[in-house]
């Protein structure tokens, strides 16, 4: 694909953002920048990580993520994004994305909150995430976040990611819709 652009992959934690993002990046021939990759590289610098350090490293990895994205002309950007109109302090801020030099579209992964919670509870991630400490209140948090839907800042494609057993079909649909949106940018200019 010759087009330039960025795809912001959004959705609940454990909604399939990384799975879809990696599939999409390969299909488009673009790099994938996943905030968790930067965060886990920071985790590896410490033998123990409490929640305060985790928060500090999360903000540091947000800055690295932003810097790397700004150095690209295209890419698939994966994170749990902080809703811009919400009063929450967690998630990756979105304000800097408007500074990117290529068109931006959003790919929102809509997933049943109960399924996302089950995935979150059963997945194995770097211990620095402290996921076991975050399980209390998880159902309430997911139920509160799910109705927020897409970020609503850029043109958006929403795909259903509750069932990812046929990732090829889901990925092909996502790629087709993203290409359609990016093509609309190219034909306007």
Return the string of H and E elements: EHEHHEEHHEH
Structural class: alpha/beta
Distance between the termini: 18 Å
Strand content: 5-15%
What percentage of residues falls in helices of 4 or more residues?
Answer: 40-55%
Low-confidence stretches: none
User: Strands of the biggest beta sheet: in what spatial order?
Assistant: 2-3-1-4-5
What's the alpha carbon Rg, rounded to whole Å? 16 Å
Count up the helices.
Answer: 6
Number of strands: 5
What is the average per-residue confidence, as pLDDT, rounded to a whole number?
89
Tell me the overall shape: globular
Give an overview of the whole structure.
- The protein has a five-stranded parallel sheet with strand order 2-3-1-4-5, with helices on both faces.
- The protein is α/β, with parallel strands linked by helices.
- The model has no long low-confidence stretch (mean pLDDT 89).
- It has helices at residues 17-28, 35-43, 51-70, 113-122, 138-145, 167-188, and strands at residues 5-11, 32-34, 74-78, 104-110, 156-160.
Descriptive tags:
189 residues, alpha/beta, globular
